[in-house]
Task: inverse folding
């Protein structure tokens, strides 16, 4: 997993991403997308470009720079970033996110990211296998520096922490609502917001300020003062789930927890049962410890009837990497592989 910095204008940032990840982006595109002569996505790509120019022109500049840096057609970069569920409707991911509002190490966010392949799997081929990921330290001229861990060639605010101590993690859910190709793309909407907002409350207002387009996700946010919320993003609808009085933590997994969004995702019954089991475990685990970094690591390494560190089999998916944000120090920790077998590596601004 590469870790690198990019600075300057948005085009310069995109160009640095493309240059640093040229081979990884090419491998991701070759293994994940249809052949370049495939014209089926042309209309969707054009609508995606139009929505970026309308809602997120700076992100569009980063995509343009990325194409230049990777020496690839802009079309292929945009096609790679089309909302999941439009390019690849059957791709499945399961993830577990948990936040602590306070503790001896301050507010924390932790996440295990899951996919359908073990961590040591080779490159993605014909849409199957582990997609390449990287850690990007991004310093825009006109925004807050941020650390982003995402697939190589993606600009996604699903899993990020900024230098003001706002951290966000997301879990795949799905949505049954009709969406418009003209709505703001969700993952890029979150990405742009992380360069501009200094608290959980500010990010919550941003999340709900436009109709969104994407696969449908739950997400959870915590800031360095302990502010928390969960966004339940059944695209195009975005709803905020707030902590109740006395809550010391929150979680999001692979289903919506707001009662009025029940049954609005496309998850099968077996996957839903495991997601609900992980929710119950996380709710109990937050209270069963001192909410320190070591407590967070213990949760993310948990194995049991319902596991958080998942190794396939009855758990249905594999933990490919793990993350912890120490918001009071703006420090980002990650493992490339199972957290039960790897030590966390620190990245700072």
Result:
């Amino acid at each position: 997993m590469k870790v690198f910095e990019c600075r300057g204008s948005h085009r310069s940032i995109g160009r640095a991403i493309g240059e640093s990840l040229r081979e990884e982006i090419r491998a991701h595109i070759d293994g994940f997308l249809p052949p370049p002569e495939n014209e089926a996505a042309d209309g969707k790509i054009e609508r995606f470009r139009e929505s970026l120019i309308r809602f997120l022109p700076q992100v569009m500049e980063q995509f343009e720079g990325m194409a230049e840096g990777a020496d690839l057609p802009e079309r292929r970069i945009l096609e790679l970033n089309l909302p999941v569920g439009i390019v690849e409707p059957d791709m499945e991911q399961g993830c577990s996110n948990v936040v602590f509002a306070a503790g001896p190490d301050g507010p924390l966010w932790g996440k295990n990211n899951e996919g359908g392949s073990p961590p040591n799997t080779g490159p993605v081929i014909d849409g199957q296998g582990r997609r390449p990921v990287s850690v990007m330290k991004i310093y825009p001229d006109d925004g807050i520096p941020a650390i982003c861990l995402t697939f190589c060639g993606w600009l996604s605010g699903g899993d990020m922490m900024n230098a003001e101590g706002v951290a966000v993690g997301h879990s795949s859910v799905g949505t049954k609502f009709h969406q418009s190709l003209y709505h703001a793309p969700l993952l890029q909407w979150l990405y742009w917001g992380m360069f501009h907002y200094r608290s959980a409350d500010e990010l919550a207002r941003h999340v709900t300020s436009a109709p969104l387009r994407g696969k449908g996700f739950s997400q959870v946010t915590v800031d360095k003062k302990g502010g928390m919320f969960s966004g339940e993003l059944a695209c195009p609808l975005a709803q905020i789930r707030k902590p109740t009085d006395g809550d010391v933590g929150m979680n999001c997994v692979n289903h919506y927890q707001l009662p009025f969004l029940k049954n609005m995702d496309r998850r099968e019954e077996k996957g839903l049962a495991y997601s609900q089991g992980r929710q119950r475990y996380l709710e109990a685990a937050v209270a069963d410890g001192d909410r320190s970094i070591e407590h967070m690591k213990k949760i993310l390494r948990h194995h049991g009837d319902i596991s958080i560190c998942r190794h396939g089999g009855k758990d249905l998916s594999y933990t490919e990497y793990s993350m912890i944000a120490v918001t009071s120090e703006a420090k980002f920790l990650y493992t490339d592989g199972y957290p039960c077998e790897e030590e966390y590596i620190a990245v700072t601004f």
